[in-house]
Write a structure and sequence with these properties.
Length: 285
């Protein structure tokens, strides 16, 4: 399966430390070699970099590990293909715009028999189940704003409710670990495996699991800093919290603000290769 990484920070933060350890999982310390990508939010804008080459061989990854990008919200992904070839259009994170916000999404898993998309303006460009699921969520969000014309796109609690409902529809079709952001909040769902750590004052040091690199955050951090790091598996030797399958979490400015439980069907936990009903039937139910 793929590897996920997301950061939610109280202040713009240099993310090169986390990115260095994460990039090593793209073919060096793990067997994920079908592309990679990362999205950085800077104020209202989002920079997205993707490459179909393995992260550990990617000149784009080398550039970004040393480039001083500071961001409050980051989403990154290392791909092991299950559906769709190793091509740029199939690399995560995927990005779409809605109501003046740029949304990005990355998925770890395998969704089978998604069926037809619901009506809406968002359609996949590539051939992955992941992008199809992202477009499904985005069309649900679009429908929310169409139904509630005065809805505030910055109301992250209302957005969480829509995402929770969409997750309940999609998670019956297979493994559905994901991270999703609009630059205001980080949404993360654990279908099988996901962990997080929250760094806050007073800080300590951390050593990467995938690289011989240690950083003393106490030398850099201030009382105003707080960073939540979400990953498929822990990146450092810090004490991480392992999510329970079914956890849907919302982080903002480095803090965990909300949690919901979206049960993972037993057959999904057992195997991702099964034959569920078509998506339209699940929607109707």
């Amino acid at each position: 399966m793929c590897q996920l990484l997301a950061l939610s920070c109280a202040e713009p933060t240099d993310v090169s430390f986390s990115l260095t350890g994460f990039a090593a999982r793209g073919g060096l310390t793990d067997h994920h070699v079908d592309g990679w990508g990362v999205a950085f939010y800077e104020d209202r804008a989002c920079r997205v970099f993707v490459d179909e080459r393995p992260a550990y061989q990617s000149p784009v990854a080398e550039f970004l590990k040393s480039y001083p990008i500071r961001s409050r919200n980051v989403v990154a992904h290392i791909r092991k293909a299950t559906q769709g070839g190793a091509r740029v259009e199939n690399c995560h994170p995927f990005m779409r715009e809605l109501r003046g916000q740029q949304w990005v999404f990355a998925h770890n898993g395998d969704l089978q028999r998604l069926g037809e998309q619901e009506p809406g303006p968002f359609t996949p460009v590539g051939s992955t189940d992941s992008e199809a699921a992202f477009c499904f969520i985005m069309n649900r969000l679009h429908a929310h704003f169409a139904t509630h014309a005065d809805a505030d796109p910055d109301n992250v609690d209302a957005l969480f409710d829509v995402i929770e409902h969409a997750t309940r529809t999609l998670n019956v079709f297979g493994i559905f670990n994901f991270v999703l952001s609009n630059g205001k909040a980080q949404f993360a769902y654990c279908s099988t495996r996901l962990s997080y750590v929250i760094r806050h004052w007073p800080f300590s040091s951390a050593r990467l699991v995938d690289d011989d690199l240690t950083v003393n955050f106490a030398e850099r951090g201030t009382p105003a800093d707080r960073t939540a790091v979400i990953a498929t598996t822990p990146l450092t030797d810090e004490v991480w919290t392992a999510c329970t399958p079914g956890d849907l979490l919302m982080f903002r400015r480095g803090a965990l603000l909300r949690r919901a439980y979206v049960a993972v069907p037993a057959e999904v936990l057992a195997t991702s290769k099964y034959a569920p009903s078509e998506l339209s039937a699940a929607i109707a139910a």
